[in-house]
Amino acid sequence: xxxxxxxxxxxxxxxxxxxxxxxxxxxxxxxxxxxxxxxxxxxxxxxxxxxxxxxxxxxxxxxxxxxxxxxxxxxxxxxxxxxxxxxxxxxxxxxxxxxxxxxxxxxxxxxxxxxxxxxxxxxxxxxxxxxxxxxxxxxxxxxxxxxxxxxxxxxxxxxxxxxxxxxxxxxxxxxxxxxxxxxxxxxxxxxxxxxxxxxxxxxxxxxxxxxxxxxxxxxxxxxxxxxxxxxxxxxxxxxxxxxxxxxxxxxxxxxxxxxxxxxxxxxxxxxxxxxxxxxxxxxxxxxxxxxxxxxxxxxxxxxxxxxxxxxxxxxxxxxxxxxxxxxxxxxxxxxxxxxxxxxxxxxxxxxxx
Amino acid sequence: xxxxxxxxxxxxxxxxxxxxxxxxxxxxxxxxxxxxxxxxxxxxxxxxxxxxxxxxxxxxxxxxxxxxxxxxxxxxxxxxxxxxxxxxxxxxxxxxxxxxxxxxxxxxxxxxxxxxxxxxxxxxxxxxxxxxxxxxxxxxxxxxxxxxxxxxxxxxxxxxxxxxxxxxxxxxxxxxxxxxxxxxxxxxxxxxxxxxxxxxxxxxxxxxxxxxxxxxxxxxxxxxxxxxxxxxxxxxxxxxxxxxxxxxxxxxxxxxxxxxxxxxxxxxxxxxxxxxxxxxxxxxxxxxxxxxxxxxxxxxxxxxxxxxxxxxxxxxxxxxxxxxxxxxxxxxxxxxxxxxxxxxxxxxxxxxxxxxxxxxxxxxxxxxxxxxxxxxxxxxxxxxxxxxxxxxxxxxxxxxxxxxxxx
Lengths: 353, 407
Known about the structure:
- The complex is a heterodimer.
- By secondary structure, chain A is mainly alpha-helical.
- Helices cover about 70% and strands about 0% of the residues of chain A.
- By secondary structure, chain B is an alpha/beta fold.
């Protein structure tokens, strides 16, 4: 390499990024590598993992994933709970935040600032505080049940009701599913208690994502919307065919952030009793913590954390693949063909006249 | 220009070095004065102050300084301390975590050498014996009793002759006490309460190296609970909007609860509630209650072990235990002190009497996970299948037992 006028700049470059590299390395990369080692070891939490443990290969992973027993069933239960949580929270919070963003983006709306603040407010409040308030709201004689009571309905004892919301329909499904759980348990749906946490998550996070959508909406130029109006597009057509496609990068961000956040739900679980009622709010993140800190099976806890990591990465890649930029999907090709046929017909009709 | 560049480089190096220095701060201080830290999970200010003043009294005579740290989450903070090589010199070790800690080599087995090792209740010594070695000294104990709201009792027209002595009279009393806004009996649905009924029916969980949780006796215990709940004379605290049954008792939402001497703590929130404690009614197989206890844990290979042992000796001496009993209602763990305590505190005599036949809740390395799974399944007891719950408990318990025994 010839030493030109920019010769020593490379060296300085390295020098200046050294602090960042050191900090990231020490506080991020090394701990992750150490946790990976712990998940493959029999460390019992006494002293440093290096030197106080031996390598046991995939034993911790097989305990959680393969060997039938309490560890596997707990993990299966946690995955079941979290799966329903993700399936309900991610689409609903995305839809709600998009809806709110579109509403507060309308120029005709009076008091837009107020609404933006109001919708965003739950997001800046600590999740611990909001969860505590929810616990009070949803006690058996709490505000929510009082309001339901006005309509003559006796509300459930939300946070201590372990029955799944579909269990009345799916309770009879026979057979044993994966991870040591019966199929009936897999299909029982989220418990009533978990539903409250789902509502809580949608309520708190939709404000944050509303902000992301709002920023993206403001980048959609007015002239594009006007052009669509001139072409004769109605409000719905304009939204689904013009605005939404232009929001696709933001949609991807919101879905990804939602997916990652919902698979890692922890503080709400910690506060509502660590899986109570009946382990129906247990999540893998909490299970990893509980296994490590309370049962001193640190290897198994780390293994759960890495399986969770794998799930998140796999789902993110899947979602990226689904939302990839395509020239035209099958339905797009059909739609294009129809449009072309219509144009030809109109043109032919015009020529005749 | 050149100077400025080197200045920036120097600054960068300085920042890194400074961060490094922060990490290695807080080295060991060696000197004449010994410094000890005690990590406790406290029931309230009274307990914290009592422990602190006892520790200060010991420290004065032993040229030491003792810091009492109140844990917000004892188990988690202990785990962090041990993993970081910075465990407290002395800590509350709960009975349900004890075997797990002992099995993993966390604890120093000092208790057998204490001069007062023979004075403790045998049941308590058993609880803290791992692998044949009496490991840590029980700091006190609590048993479960039947706590009755005396005003509600009188209002229902009941007298001392009606104090429940068996399951039938308990059911009768609970039925009479149940009104529109008060339930007759309330307790948290968990092994630590339901297990008493199972034991009163003659059920055990472990027999040698076999789990026997799915016995008909255990089933009878759970079915009795189901029956009371079906009749509406028993409700879980969450059903009457209480965090725990003590709160239900204090607020007048429950007339009888099953709790321990810590019920004293409700005086702060409900000073006007009058209650009295009695021994638990006997089941078909006789009387039974659970005894819960913490011990004073000392970490293995601790530098301050000798000082900590001396402190434990001071804290478990009869005089000091009686002082703790006066301060925050725990029962002394030595037989001599407990007898004195029962005379001085007749209101808690029933709890001391209970220890004559009390059993320890199941406790072996790894049992905590199984018990918490059982607790989770108990959430489905009302209207559920008690037999299936016990069958699942049996399976997990046997698996955990085999693992603990190294099979």
